[in-house]
Amino acid sequence: MLYFSPWKVVLILGVVLLGFFFSLPNFVPAENRYVDPANPDQTKGIWTILPSQTVNLGLDLRGGSHLVFEVDIEDVRQERLGDLAEEARVVLRNDPPIFTARPAVVGQQVVIRVTNPEDLGAAYERLRELNGPVTGANGGQSLDQRLSITQDDSDRTIRIAITEAEISSIRQRTVEQSIEVIRRRIDATGTTEPTITRQDEDRVLVQVPGESDPQRVIDLVGTTARMTFHMVDRSVQVGPDGQARTPPDVMILPSDDGYENFVAVKRRAVLSGENLASASQSFDQNGQPAVAFRFDTTGSQVFGEITSQNVGERFAIVLDGVVITAPRIRSPILGGSGIIEGSFTVQEASDLSTMLSAGALPAKLTPVEQRSITASMGQDAIEAGAEAILLGFALVIVFMVLAYGFMGVVSTTALLINVLLILGALSGLQATLTLPGIAGIILTIGMAVDANVLIFERIREEIRQGRKVINAIEIGYNRAFAAILDANVTTFIAAAVLFMMGAGPVRGFAVTLGIGIVTSVFTAFTFSRFVVAVWLRLRKPQSIGF
Amino acid sequence: MSFALVRFIPVQSNVPFIKGRWIAFIFSALLIVGSLGVFFAKGLNYGIDFRGGTMLEVRTEGPADLSAIRTTMSGLGLGDVQVQGVGTDRDLFIRVESLSLEQIRQIAPDLVTEDTSENGAQQIVRQYVETALVESFPGIELRGSSVISPKVSDELVVKGSMAVGIALILMLVYIWFRFEWQYSVGAVLALVHDVIATIGMFSLTGLEFNLSTIAAILTIVGYSMNDTVVVYDRVREEFRKYKTLEISQVLNMSINLTLSRTILTSGTTLVALVSLAIFGGHALQGFAFALIWGIVIGTYSSIFVAAPLLMLTGVKRTSEEDEAEARFADKR
To answer: Which of A338, B18, B58, B182 is geometrically suited to a Cys-Cys bond with B248, CB 3.0 to 4.6 A?
Structure first.
């Protein structure tokens, strides 16, 4: 147990050195490591060879906003059902037409009632054309059908529902598209290093370092930004409370344009945000902030036709169900570009143009969890944590040296290496250090001596039983091994469970605790054992005074 | 050669732990009954992680006038609002419970639209409180905010309880695998004892019970297990060594032999945690207190509960593996 082969010595020292190298950047200011501290790709001088990454601080230490948004799948399902009802109506009207009541969405189904009972079978066959296999994860086809279509002879109805397999495929696509859109929107604001990832089934985690006002992120990410263009219906008189007698193809929308509270518009959108090629913040002729936009080719063509045919009429630009502006068409607009005037601030106009360029979200996103902190508060936490680490470390050193003398010095040296290894592992693996993570390091400092204590106590005991020093040390290491392993595996299990089940900051605690357990067992069995072995060889002590 | 300056822990102790186990059992039983009693009577002071709502951390320009802030807050019609000073006289926490959609519609009718969900609407509460604070107390600094919707807090309750449950089951399995079932039952009973006592402490003191408390409980479980395993490992070893001694004697000897280690490790851990409690800032204070309590109770339970429990679970002198080996040897 006390003999170390040369390659083992190299390995032990190598790991220690590696930990040292990886932790080194944390002690050197960024301007000495990078040519441009804001750009961690260009390293300077010796740092091109040495690892240059520092510990990745969590948002609770560097300041920023952590938000979890939930995708409203029920909303998407309802929309899809609405489309299905329309598609069903179209196929049933094909030649020869099958007469039915208008397909209607009832709960989570489309219900179609056939007029003549003998048409039921034919209608069922016709509607099966709408079905098909679910698109699989890689664009391939799966065995599951998208729809479940059932016919009920007793009340002459056919019911169409969306299958679970299709819903889960829709969920997958919706979340992925949402992430894409959110990334484009946030990137456009110039934020550095945002994290946008899927969480659980139907959630998106958005972390924006440096932005301590969550409302900015919520406004940017939580707005669906579905823009549509509708013709205004002049024939409908809207009361001040938004009540009006409307034909089926007209709807009343609230208005935000500053002139009127409600506008009656045609249900059918003539154009949508998908036809936009670009949007940018600009100013109108009165110097008010506005959003300039340009349509793509199809959009320009349609827009040209509509404005030519409807000179003198008004059209409404609708964003997420609210009219932003409803200008009168004075002359045909053929160039395909225009300007949205509304009662915007510059910031609002800029955010809106960002969202229009990035595209609409495929579904409504609801913020369900939010944690934000300013940078100065994070800095306070770092300082408090650093103080606690230093004091805790000092106290443990005093304690160990008082209890074990020289052996205590060995184990506190091992402890120092341990902390460097944790720091190195965090930097090298680019794991995130959170505030609870700092608590994990302090706890590790307290507990890491345990392996050494177990060994030393065992050595003491063997000496008491009259063994020679060298034998006692040898046996002490051997016998303590099983207990150390078992004891640390149990703590590691707790850390692993915490890592898997825990959320956000608490995970950071599990990370440092877990790394700390591994490094403390490693240092006890390699580094401190090696030091003790060297010491034994050099001094050949006949007794140890503990 | 002498190295140690002070030897403050008795090198060889011989405390009759096993003989006095009934005292410890009665004490533990009272502790458990008391903890459960307090828990059911008083409940826990759940943080927003577990009951949803809004938490703001603000810093006032001068010394904070808590009563003025409380008056302003209670005038907002938000139900139960807690205003609490932390650390310095300028820093404080404001906690608002999660409100129903109807309540939110009443305080901010223009921000609630037709498709606002109750979960998303909690953000409106935060906006509303922040605006009110900045208007009534110009110069106030908004330093942090958290909003947990009722949906997420419900999930966190389930996840948190599951985490503790899974950890206990995994430890049970691991100890079963490494030792015998008698050990495993004893160890896990001791852990349940620690968890209940910690929950009792939180209930009694009214310390905020949140996500990091779950982390603390899992750490306590890990630490207490660590202690127990060291004692059990020794018990197993001594059983093999002394085939003729009484079980109670072997147990007592094992506890005493590992006693100085138990005390030393608890000592260094406590020393580090005390430093965390003093200097770690208010955010980590509750966490540090929970751990300090847990280390004390975990150390106690390893010595006074887990080891003596082996008398009750009927631990066998030889393990099944040893017996199998013996049978194998006989055949040869």
So the answer is: B18
